[in-house]
Amino acid sequence: MYETSDIRKGLKVLMDGNPFTIIEFQFVKPGKGTAFTRTKFKNLLTGGIVEKNIRSGEKLEPANVEERTMQFLYKEGEDFVFMDGTSYEQVSIATDTVGKQHDLLSDNLDCTVLFFNERPVDVSLPNFIYSHVVSTEPGARGDSTGNVLKPAIIESGAEIGVPLFICEGDYLKIDTRTRSYVERQKK
Amino acid sequence: MRAGRVLARDADQLRIRCEGRSELVAAIGGEGPGDWVQLEDETAPRIVAPFRGVDFPSPSSETARLDPGRITGLRARATVLAEIRRYFSEQQFLEIEAPTMVRAPGLEVNIRAVEAEGGYLITSPEYAMKRLLAGGLQKIFAMPRCFRSEEEGGHHGVEFTMLEWYRSFDTLESIMADTEALVRRTVRAVRGKESVMVGGREVSVASPWKRMRVQDAFAEWAGIELLGDESASTLADKAVAAGVEIGSAHEWDDIFYSIFLQCVQPRLDGLSEAVLLIDWPNPLAALARTKPGKPEWALRFEAYVGGVELANAFDELTDPVEQRRRFEAEQDERRRRGLDVYPIDEKFMAALEEGLPPCAGIALGVDRLAMLAAGATSLRGVSAFVADEL
């Protein structure tokens, strides 16, 4: 069981038979009184959000969820096929479950797949991915401030904003959480 | 117009730090590391202050590595500290530097003290301040760093700055007037007006502040008739009947605060004016006197601004017999709950026995006041460093 002091973002708990992840929490202690953790939970199956005040001393039940590192293999219709690198087991995961970062998936990318009762329920990409620029407007030399962005297509087919000096073939570091350009990599 | 400081030069490019971020611009002259430059447009830097090997306060010192918002917050905090001292100086209060390392910390069951040198760090300067009142001082204030273990969050830190002030031969009314005047004044000094922004809403701190009895807040916002002397199980029944989730709570205070957080706090968050919650139920009297003729209510108030609990005040208990009884009850309660049992401050008790004049006092969270005045969303925004940055 988890204590309130274990509460942190990303902690997976079971409430009313559903797996939840903690997305936000605040320590509160009104009037020199009892300590509570005002906690926002996201239902991992439905995406629904609930807020509860967990009193210090109360317990939370860990959810029977498993995180596995799996490699993205290929897209098959609306499903994404991932493989466990050690067991070679493959799973097909629907676009909805993969989430809105699905277009950042490129072949062989290692992702974290969350299983609840053996069923894949969520896919997390690494915070940063690296990709060549497949196409973009020609680079504008001299403007190196990085303040103005232009669209560029990366290997996965996704479009992201890059500084004007970026050229086709450049190798970029991209933050998958914000879908934003971080920096150009030396090859 | 933006300004920045050159960190490095590489041929025709300058790496500059500007508005808390590092960026590259084209060099146009002899700019070098340490120079302060102004950016006429996005690309053309102009030296406004050449680096001479020493740092100096620049009008553009926001271009340093600290986040500009943080620097604004630190300035707001300094203004708040200065205004607090100005207010009490005008009111002819004596500033006290209370000791922070003591043998006996606060005994409230919900507060854990940090151990130090065989004793504890103070959770409040209260005992020392009252000994001085007993010693003959009449109007005193102190602004020490206090320490409460296991309290870490947006509005809490294990280490924080507490302002306490006391008036002897005086009542809670004067403390209320001080509170309003002090908050108004510090907010005006930072913001130029008597309102703060909390969660995107404007909250007025202009006088007079709304006053509400805890009993009325419970009746109006929770639909619960609070008597102040009901048993824990009766209070639990009332909470459940009103649809409040109390989980496994069975202690009186745990149930009270479950109701408070679920029903009262959201309403306090929504108020567009500052409020004083007055007349707290006796189980939460702590070091407050009970109301004459109404022993189920304590002469205690709490100040809330935009839902942020800012201060807690007592018409101070001066009766040594009752004080010892309460301290011993707190110790028993600590023992029963398996908590560390702190010693009773016998020097404080001796001062009460020699005679503490009638007095009222308050503890106000300076970090939270600075946060409100600065419009910051957490203490981080007005603190030089918070725990996770150390």
Could you list the spans of chain A in which at least 5 consecutive residues all have pLDDT below 50? none
The CATH homologous superfamily of the largest domain in chain B is called Bira Bifunctional Protein, Domain 2
CATH architecture of the largest domain in chain A: Beta Barrel
Main interface: chain pair and counts: A-B, 24 and 37 residues
Oligomer: heterodimer
Structural class of chain A: mainly beta
Low-confidence segments of chain B, ≥5 residues, pLDDT <50?
54-63
Instruction: Tell me how many strands of chain A there are.
Output: 15
Assign an overall shape of chain B.
Answer: elongated
Overall average residue pLDDT of chain B: 91
> Briefly, what CATH class of the largest domain in chain B?
Alpha Beta
Helix coverage percent of chain A? under 10%
Output the number of helix runs of chain A: 1
Indicate the CATH class of the largest domain in chain A. Answer: Mainly Beta
Total number of distinct structural domains of chain B: 2
Computed over alpha carbons, the radius of gyration of chain A is 21 Å
Contiguous helical run count of chain B: 9
Would you give an account of this structure?
The complex is a heterodimer of chains A (187) and B (390). Helix content of chain A is 2%, strand content 53%. By secondary structure, chain A is mainly β. The radius of gyration of chain A is 21 Å and the shape is flat. With 390 residues, chain B is of the alpha+beta class. Chain B has 2 domains: 2-63, SH3 type barrels; 68-209 and 273-389, BirA Bifunctional Protein, domain 2. Chain B has helices spanning 68-90, 126-134, 172-191, 214-222, 232-241, 252-270, 320-336, 346-355, 366-374; strands at 2-10, 13-18, 21-26, 36-39, 45-49, 94-96, 101-102, 115-116, 119-121, 139-142, 145-147, 159-168, 195-198, 201-204, 210-213, 275-281, 290-291, 294-305, 308-315, 359-365. In chain B, strands 6, 10, 11, 12, 15, 16, 17, 18, 19 and 20 form a 10-stranded mixed β-sheet that branches. A 5-stranded antiparallel β-sheet of chain B has the order 3-2-1-4-5, with no helix packed on it. In chain B, strands 7-9-8 form a 3-stranded antiparallel β-sheet, with no helix packed on it. In chain B, β4 and β5 form a beta hairpin. The A-B interface holds A 5, 26-36, 38, 52-55, 58, 142-147 and B 13, 23-26, 42-43, 108, 110-111, 150-156, 245, 247-249, 251, 253-254, 256-258, 260-262, 265, 280, 284, 286, 302, 309, 312.
